[in-house]
Each structure stands twice: as structure tokens, then as C-alpha cells.
Amino acid sequence: MDRHASPAALRAAMRSGAFTDNTSGFAPGHVQCNLVILPDAFAGDFLRFCQANPKPCPLLAISPSPGDPTLPALGDIDVRNDLPRYRVFEDGEVTTEALSIADRWQSDFVAFALGCSFSFEEALLADGLEVRNVSLDCNVPMYRTNIPCAPAGPFRGEMVVSMRPFRAADAIRAIQVCTRFPAVHGAPVHLGDPALIGIDNLDAPDYGDPVPVAADELPVFWACGVTPQIALAHARPPVAITHSPGCMLVTDLNNSRLAVL
Amino acid sequence: MDRHASPAALRAAMRSGAFTDNTSGFAPGHVQCNLVILPDAFAGDFLRFCQANPKPCPLLAISPSPGDPTLPALGDIDVRNDLPRYRVFEDGEVTTEALSIADRWQSDFVAFALGCSFSFEEALLADGLEVRNVSLDCNVPMYRTNIPCAPAGPFRGEMVVSMRPFRAADAIRAIQVCTRFPAVHGAPVHLGDPALIGIDNLDAPDYGDPVPVAADELPVFWACGVTPQIALAHARPPVAITHSPGCMLVTDLNNSRLAVL
């Protein structure tokens, strides 16, 4: 698949089952999203969870009504087939991966599209900064922290963060660049000593791949879209569906439109 | 003297010799400036030095013409008498302190008013952040670094920085707040390991007073208005005049007017 194909062409290929891969680097310039689908009985509390925790859960769009699989604010989208790959959760645990969820769709499902780090990584790269996981062509390292999220109903848990190392002057610039993009995790939440947020060993991420941090670099930590999966594990809804890691919802929105300035 | 007196009333008291003190905390909300006065033969190179090094030398105003002691952009100001206290340099070295420079004024003098950290400290405090040197009622610690300034004619030298400690989340917020104020040193230039910018010992500042840095805090470093004095020492003009440390030019400008956003 051509990386520069339009978002609509990419989604058509996903819908037909021709594209089932990681979406990193595809449709550059366009917003990609984390997806969370829940029964309507859990949707109100999850919406409050997102509102109370905007850095890990920046909500970009929500289903027009329960059972409606479209997200018109983000493009001509059917969330049942327009992602490459899904994860199905039962009682808060992953039980299945699937290429389509059409056969599992329920009339009470509500879909949430949340901002994703791909957008701010693109802004960092466009600014001339090196993003280590991009340079190394690996997944970003992610860690569970001791930073509590604000609870909402059954949704609670600690924040998950992603880490990218920078020299101090570049870390300051990265903070400035990401401050313009609150809808895709915004400014970092921590930098420097990982132990201060409950991370024991940078070389052993809880998700993704480790990356080297040079002696003259600081680890810089951003709130991460994996956080909702921790909240799902606490809330234990009978069924929930998310994108599969790295296999995101590709939208028609331009990344630059998310800049607040 | 009433700390809340107007800038014009404060300058009148300085002009009459009734106020000869540090201006920190006076006329809150108003911009205070570093002052550098040079013979016109050096003014062009110093102007280029400021343009090339805007973080340590953010130029807010310059004399309308050589020999003119006013700075109409900043208020009804006569730079010969309207500061509490001056330093006179000969061949780049401090030789005298003076309460007025009326008797030393030359027809070829050009005055430069540069932004000062008081403005961004006020913005940090207004945001609810603790500024250690303000809490401790002492001078901010300042350090010579190994960060070279861009040279211009005879003006050159390393950047001087001021340091304020913050926990990481507050350091990130401080970067955001100060980014709005490029005319008063703007965002920090470094944070974390002092050795990376040539500072051996935080407890032994080159200027000002040491402040404690807690185990869970990062030292955060801003470009400092003392930098021009290093450049003066290199350029060795036959005569130059600056404000005395902490005894600044109080202007009519509102700090909030310097915010770029």
C-alpha cells in the first residue's frame, strides 16, 4: 500500500481486508486515532473519564448515537471495518484479535476516537527534532506510572506514559511544539528521573520497545493512549473493543488543524 | 517608598535621589529593564550582538538618536537620572558606582533597554508556581556557562544564566509560561545536569545567591541579562554605563503587553 494514499483510500483497503498492518507513517499529515468502543451503559462514565483526564484521553470524536458506527466529524468512516485490526475485551481482558468487528457490533455500542502520539511525533520531526523510536524504526517504549488518573464511575487506574529521549535544549523545544497540540496528548507530563513517577527501569518498558538514552539526554514522558486500556481492566465491562496497538483509525483531519495556535 | 507607586512616581523619586534601592517587587505589573549605555562607535556592533543573541539580550528600546537621554517607547524617561544606581565601566571593567550619570553624559551616548527576569518571574508567580529566590527573598543565582554567544564586532563571550529549581511538572509549566514572553528572556535554555553547560557547582554561583535544589527538583536555567557585561569585558569600550545589579529601569509598559499570545 502506498504510504501517501489518501485516508479514504487507506480506509477502503482496510474495509476490504487488503490492509491489515500498522498504520505508522501512512497518510502523513493526517490525524490517526486510538479507538475505544463500549456499551452505552458504560459510555457516560467513560466520557467523564476522558473529560477528567484529557492528557492521556484526548477525545476527538464520539458516535452520533448508540449503535451508529459512523464518525462523521472525522471522515466517511464505518468503525466496524475501517481499521486494520481490532482487540476485543471481555470483562476487561483481551480475548480476541479481529480484522473486522461487523459480526460483533451491538445496537448499544458507542465509539470514542482519541488523539494519538503519531500527530505530535510528526510535528516534532517537522521541527527538525530526532524522535528516537522513529529513527530506530521500533515501537515507542511505554511505562505504567504511579500517577493516578481522576476516576469516573468504574474507570480508574494509573497513567501510562510514552518516553522519548532528548538533550535538554531539544526537550524544551519539544515541550513548546507539543503545547500547541493538546488534542494529541499535549505537553509532556514528566522529564528527568523516572523513579519520581514510579518507573524502576527504563530498559524494561511495560509496552513497546526499549530505546537507548544517552548520558547527555533526559527521558521525556508523554501521557499515552494506552491509559484507557488500564481503565478498561478496572471497569471490566462485559465487552469492549479497541484498535490493535499501532493499527489506528486513519481520519481525514489534518494534523495542523489540531494546533491551538 | 510604596511598592505600588506608579512607575512615573518611582522614577521621580529616583531622579530626586530619594530612592536608591533595589527595584525588585516595586511597581508590580510593569516591565523593568536592564540598561546598557555605549558610545555611538560601539552601538552598531552592540545592536547586532543583541539581534544575534535575543535570549540573553532581548532589546526592548534604544535611544532615538545619539546623545538623546530619553526612551519615549518606555515612558517619560531620562536615563541620566531615572535609575536608582548605575555602574560605570572603563575599558570593560567596573570602576565606579553612581546615583546619577548626568555629569558623565556624552553627546555620543546610546542607551539600550533590555528585558529582565522580573517580568517572567511575575508571570510564573501569577501562575501559582513557586520561584525559589522570591520565596527566600534573595538574589537569583547566576552562572557563567560554556554556551557561546554569537559574536558581533568586539562583543562576544559566553552566556550567563539564572537558575530556578522546579519539580518536573512545574518545570514543564514554567517553559510554557515563559515561552509567551520572548522579550524577557523567553523559555529556559537548559534544565537538568549543570555540567552539560559548563557549571561545576550549583552551590557556588558566579553572581547572586545560592538557593537549595531538592532531590525531586530539576535546576532550570534561563538566559540572563548579565550576559552583556561579559560582552562588555571583551569589547573594552573606553566608557560604558549599566544599571547597578537589581536597580533596574522601571518603565510604564505592562508586563502582559510583552506576551506574544
TrEMBL record, chains A, B:
EC class name: lyase
Domain of life according to the entry: Bacteria
One Pfam match: D-Glu_cyclase
Keywords annotated in UniProt: Lyase
Any one GO molecular-function label of the UniProt entry: lyase activity
InterPro entries found in the cross-reference section: D-Glu_cyclase, Putative_hydro-lyase, UPF0317
E.C. number(s) listed in UniProt: 4.2.1.-
Similarity remark: Belongs to the D-glutamate cyclase family.
Cross-referenced PANTHER family: D-GLUTAMATE CYCLASE, MITOCHONDRIAL (PTHR32022:SF10)
Name listed for the protein in its UniProt record: Putative hydro-lyase HRUBRA_00376
